[in-house]
């Protein structure tokens, strides 16, 4: 089973990059399933039903969210109400709309996807990702699940690495998102857990983590906060990882980083 997992899609330019690059990649690598973090896809923050449909037409099957999941609450709540394949962090407090675990059936096999948000240097008080992860795995153990893919949406590399060790051998993959910068540490453990600290982003390549550089530089130079402007055109970067999963064992066989660029007009 091959799963393509795309890093944080930022704005229209990121969506355009997915539309231009994903169909060819999906065909080239014969990906069975495509997952994308889409919490920044609505002009840099949030997700809505129209964007889910747009990205689905480009080939994305499942959409994950992070700490910006509810930045446009009404829009994302409509996605949950429509029962679209959208996953928010599972360690939001009880009673929060949406789902933190999504089970997808492919070729008769059930693959579970879950998102956990980190707590170090994050601006929200999420529940403990370690303990919530334990509860998720205990619940999935009662079901017919062939493999579990865990996304860790977190700021601190140390927290992601700790979660990698904690869930090593218990899930097929632990994939970091949130920082928008792909790390060079993709690896496969002896226990069959694929890992990367951060997949990176899909968005404007010539700014600062997807945002136009001019206001970011002004903010650093003056310590005055200027609005984040998401470029509409220019060079876009597409970051993802390709997982190869042995479903009979619930283990990863490989993880391959993918980085491509396109000029968006």
From TrEMBL:
<feature type="binding site">
    <location>
        <position position="8"/>
    </location>
    <ligand>
        <name>Fe cation 1</name>
    </ligand>
</feature>
<dbReference type="Pfam" id="PF13277">
    <property type="entry name" value="YmdB"/>
</dbReference>
<feature type="binding site">
    <location>
        <position position="39"/>
    </location>
    <ligand>
        <name>Fe cation 1</name>
    </ligand>
</feature>
<feature type="binding site">
    <location>
        <position position="40"/>
    </location>
    <ligand>
        <name>Fe cation 1</name>
    </ligand>
</feature>
<protein>
    <submittedName>
        <fullName>Metallophosphoesterase</fullName>
    </submittedName>
</protein>
<dbReference type="GO" id="GO:0004113">
    <property type="term" value="F:2',3'-cyclic-nucleotide 3'-phosphodiesterase activity"/>
</dbReference>
<feature type="active site" description="Proton donor">
    <location>
        <position position="68"/>
    </location>
</feature>
<feature type="binding site">
    <location>
        <position position="39"/>
    </location>
    <ligand>
        <name>Fe cation 2</name>
    </ligand>
</feature>
<keyword id="KW-0479">Metal-binding</keyword>
<feature type="binding site">
    <location>
        <position position="153"/>
    </location>
    <ligand>
        <name>Fe cation 2</name>
    </ligand>
</feature>
<dbReference type="InterPro" id="IPR029052">
    <property type="entry name" value="Metallo-depent_PP-like"/>
</dbReference>
<dbReference type="GO" id="GO:0046872">
    <property type="term" value="F:metal ion binding"/>
</dbReference>
<dbReference type="InterPro" id="IPR005235">
    <property type="entry name" value="YmdB-like"/>
</dbReference>
<feature type="binding site">
    <location>
        <position position="180"/>
    </location>
    <ligand>
        <name>Fe cation 1</name>
    </ligand>
</feature>
<feature type="binding site">
    <location>
        <position position="178"/>
    </location>
    <ligand>
        <name>Fe cation 2</name>
    </ligand>
</feature>
<feature type="binding site">
    <location>
        <position position="67"/>
    </location>
    <ligand>
        <name>Fe cation 2</name>
    </ligand>
</feature>
């Amino acid at each position: 089973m091959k799963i393509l997992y795309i890093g944080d899609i930022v704005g229209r330019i990121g969506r355009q990059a997915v539309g231009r690059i994903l169909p060819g990649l999906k065909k080239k690598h014969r990906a069975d399933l495509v997952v994308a973090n889409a919490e920044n896809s609505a002009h840099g923050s949030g997700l809505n039903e129209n964007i889910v449909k747009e990205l689905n037409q480009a080939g994305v099957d499942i959409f994950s969210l992070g700490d910006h999941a509810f930045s446009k609450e009404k829009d994302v709540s409509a996605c949950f109400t429509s029962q679209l394949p959208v996953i928010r962090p599972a360690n939001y407090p009880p009673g929060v709309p949406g789902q933190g675990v999504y089970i997808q059936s492919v070729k008769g096999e059930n693959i579970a996807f879950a998102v956990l948000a980190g707590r170090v240097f994050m601006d929200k008080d999420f529940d403990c990702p370690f303990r919530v992860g334990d509860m998720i795995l205990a619940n999935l153990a009662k079901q017919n699940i062939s493999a579990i893919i865990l996304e860790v949406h977190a700021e601190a590399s140390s927290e992601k690495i700790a979660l990698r060790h904690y869930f090593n051998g218990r899930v097929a993959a632990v994939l970091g998102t949130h920082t928008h910068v792909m790390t060079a540490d993709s690896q496969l453990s002896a226990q069959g857990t694929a890992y990367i600290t951060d997949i990176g982003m899909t968005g404007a390549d010539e700014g600062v983590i997807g945002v136009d550089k001019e206001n970011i530089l002004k903010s650093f130079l003056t310590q005055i906060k200027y609005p984040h402007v998401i470029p509409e055109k220019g060079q876009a970067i597409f970051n993802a990882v390709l997982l190869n999963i042995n479903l009979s064992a619930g283990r990863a066989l490989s993880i391959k980083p993918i980085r491509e660029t396109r000029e968006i007009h």
